[in-house]
Specification:
The complex is a heterodimer of chains A (about 100) and B (about 300).
Chain A lengths: L6 E2 L1 H28 L9 H45 L10 E2 L1
Antiparallel strand pairs in A: 1-2
Helix pairs in contact in A: 1-2
Chain B lengths: L6 H10 L8 H29 L7 H11 L4 H46 L4 H28 L4 H18 L13 E3 L3 H7 L3 E3 L10 H23 L7 H19 L16 H16 L3
Antiparallel strand pairs in B: 1-2
Helix pairs in contact in B: 1-4, 2-4, 4-5, 6-8, 6-10, 8-9, 8-10, 9-10
Classes of the chains: A mainly alpha (about 100), B mainly alpha (about 300).
C-alpha cells in the first residue's frame, strides 16, 4: 500500500544501483558469450524437432538482450534516484533523523 | 561406441533399408549449453533480489513506482525468472528426447541383429522385421514431433502462458454442463473465419463444445483470451500493489473491471440483463465475471 510519508535511504539506493550495474555488466558479457556459443547447428536431423528448437533458442536470445537492457535501466535509475535523494536530504536537513534517514 | 555403429547393427539395418539413428552427441552439447544458461539465470534471480533489497528501507510514491516496475512482467527479476523457467523446461525436453532416441536405438539394434540372422536362416521374416523397424522409426518421429511442440509452447512468456491456461479453464467451465453421459459434449457448431484453421481442417464449421481450447480457431478462442488477459493483468497489478487478493473487495472490484471490458467488446449485441453496470447485474450474471477472476487467481503462482 502507498504510505503517506516518504522514507529515504539514498545510500541503500546507491548500493542497489551499483549492484544492478555490476549485474548488467556481467550479464552483457554472458549474453555476448551465448550469442557466439549458440550457433544455428541443429541437434538432430529432424525438422519437426530442430525447427521449433532453433526458433526457441532465437526467442530466448532476444529475451536475454531485453533483460540486459532492463538490468542496466534499473541500475541507472537507482543511482539517479539516489543522487536526487541526496540533494533532497540537503534541502530537508530540518527533518533529518539520527539514523540519517529523512522523513517528510 | 554407439549401438548404431556396431558392425552387426549397421549390416542388419542395411539389409532392412532403415537408416541408422543420428548420434546424440550434439544433443548433449545443447543440453550443456542450455543447462548453464538456466543456472546463470537462477543465480541472477537471487542476485537481482539481493540488489533490490539493498534499497529496501526506502518508502514513498517513487519507491512504489519502482516496486511496480520491478515486479511487473517487464521487471528485470521476473524476466530472469521466466528465462530460467523456460531454459530449464527446454533442457528437460532435450533430456527426455535423448532418452527416447536411446530407447528406440536399442529396439532397432535388436531388429537389425535379428535381420542379420534371418538372412541366413529365415529370409521370409525380413519384410516383417522391416515393418517392425519402420514402426519404431515412426514412434520416434512422433515423440520428437511432440517434443517440438513443447519447444513451441516455450516461445511464450510466463504471463502469456497463464493467460492461455485461464482461457482453457474458462472453456472447460463453459462446456462442463454440456457433458453427455456416454462421453463427449452436446454439440455447438459454429462458423469460423480463421483461414489457417480452415486450411488445416478443410471446413469452416467447428463444434466448439467438442473441441479443446487449444484446438479452437482463433476467433473462437478470442473472447476467453480477452477476458483472461484482463483478469490476469488485474491480479498481477493488485499483487504488485500489495492488495489482499483473497478479500471480497478485490474480487468485486476486479469482477467489475472484467465486466466493463466485456461490455466494451460485446455491448452492441449484449442482452438487456447483461447490458448493465456491474453493480446492477443479478448475482447469476455477476458470478460469470467472478469465475474469470477466480480462475486468474488460481493461475497466479
Amino acid at each position: 500500500m502507498t504510505p503517506d510519508y516518504v522514507n529515504i535511504d539514498a545510500g541503500g539506493r546507491h548500493s542497489s544501483g551499483r549492484s544492478f550495474r555490476r549485474l548488467a555488466d556481467e550479464y552483457t558479457d554472458f549474453a555476448t558469450g551465448l550469442r557466439s556459443e549458440w550457433g544455428d547447428e541443429a541437434p538432430l536431423p529432424y525438422e519437426e524437432f530442430s525447427g521449433p528448437y532453433l526458433e526457441l533458442r532465437r526467442t530466448l536470445l532476444e529475451a536475454c538482450e531485453r533483460l540486459d537492457g532492463h538490468l542496466r535501466h534499473v541500475g541507472n535509475g537507482q543511482v539517479i534516484m539516489a543522487e536526487v535523494n541526496v540533494e533532497a536530504e540537503h534541502i530537508n536537513t530540518v527533518n533529518v533523523t539520527p539514523t540519517g534517514q529523512a522523513r517528510a | 561406441m554407439s549401438l548404431m555403429s556396431e558392425p552387426a547393427v549397421v549390416a542388419g539395418l542395411g539389409i532392412l533399408g532403415i537408416p541408422p539413428l543420428p548420434d546424440t552427441g550434439l544433443l548433449d552439447k545443447h543440453i550443456g549449453e542450455l543447462d548453464r544458461a538456466a543456472a546463470y539465470h537462477r543465480r541472477l534471480v537471487q542476485d537481482g533480489g539481493h540488489a533490490y533489497r539493498l534499497a529496501g528501507t526506502n518508502e514513498g510514491p517513487a519507491t512504489d513506482a519502482l516496486h511496480a516496475y520491478m515486479t511487473s512482467r517487464d521487471g528485470a527479476v521476473p524476466q530472469a525468472a521466466d528465462l530460467a523457467d523456460r531454459l530449464t523446461t527446454a533442457v528437460g525436453n532435450l533430456r527426455v528426447s535423448k532418452i527416447i532416441i536411446e530407447w528406440v536405438e536399442g529396439l532397432l539394434a535388436s531388429v537389425a541383429v535379428a535381420a542379420g540372422i534371418a538372412v541366413a536362416f529365415a529370409p521370409q521374416l525380413l519384410p516383417r522385421l522391416a515393418a517392425i523397424g519402420g514402426r519404431f522409426i515412426a514412434m520416434l518421429r512422433n515423440a520428437l514431433s511432440r517434443a517440438g511442440r513443447i519447444f513451441m509452447s516455450l516461445f511464450k512468456t510466463r504471463q502469456a502462458r497463464r493467460i492461455d491456461a485461464v482461457s482453457d479453464r474458462l472453456h472447460e467451465a463453459w462446456r462442463a454442463p454440456r457433458r453427455l453421459p456416454g462421453g463427449g459434449y452436446e454439440a455447438r457448431v459454429k462458423t469460423t473465419t480463421d483461414q489457417a484453421w480452415i486450411r488445416r481442417h478443410g471446413t469452416d464449421q467447428v463444434d466448439i463444445a467438442n473441441t479443446r481450447y487449444k484446438d479452437l480457431p482463433a476467433d473462437w478462442q478470442k473472447e476467453n483470451k480477452e477476458s483472461a488477459t484482463v483478469a490476469v493483468r488485474l491480479v498481477d497489478d493488485a499483487s504488485r500493489r500489495g492488495v489482499d487478493l483473497k478479500g471480497e473487495e478485490f474480487m468485486e472490484s476486479a469482477s467489475e473491471r472484467v465486466h466493463d471490458a466485456w461490455l466494451r467488446r460485446n455491448g452492441e449485441w449484449a442482452p438487456p440483463e447483461q447490458k448493465l453496470p456491474y453493480q446492477e447485474l443479478s448475482q447469476v450474471e455477476k458470478e460469470k465475471d467472478r469465475v474469470v477472476v477466480r480462475e486468474a487467481l488460481a493461475e497466479q503462482d
